[in-house]
């Protein structure tokens, strides 16, 4: 492993981001979208995906998503900011969430 503790890598990925946009990106660019811990770095995300799903990762792009402002009556609140990782897989690799590995 490339210098990361296995415990840390197990906590980096929170969930796959499943939406119309994520599905479109997955089909077009052979990418998978994950919700990740807000302190995650690109090398950590790459190592975590390779460890958990036994696939080869070509590259990782990360986006910070700002939390929306929501109202509840007079009160205004704000959802938490979160981080999204676009993981590009090497040709011929795929992650199938429907199979339930």
TrEMBL record:
Key word Acetylation present: no
Keywords: Ribonucleoprotein, Ribosomal protein, RNA-binding, rRNA-binding
UniProt keyword annotation of Transcription present: no
Membrane spanning residue stretches: none
Annotated Gene Ontology cellular component terms: ribosome
Domain of life: Bacteria
Quaternary structure annotation from Swiss-Prot or TrEMBL: Part of the 50S ribosomal subunit. Contacts protein L29, and trigger factor when it is bound to the ribosome.
Alphabetized HAMAP family for the sequence: Ribosomal_uL23_B
Family to which this protein belongs: Belongs to the universal ribosomal protein uL23 family.
Primary role: One of the early assembly proteins it binds 23S rRNA. One of the proteins that surrounds the polypeptide exit tunnel on the outside of the ribosome. Forms the main docking site for trigger factor binding to the ribosome.
Name the UniProt record assigns to this protein: Large ribosomal subunit protein uL23
Originating species: Aromatoleum diolicum
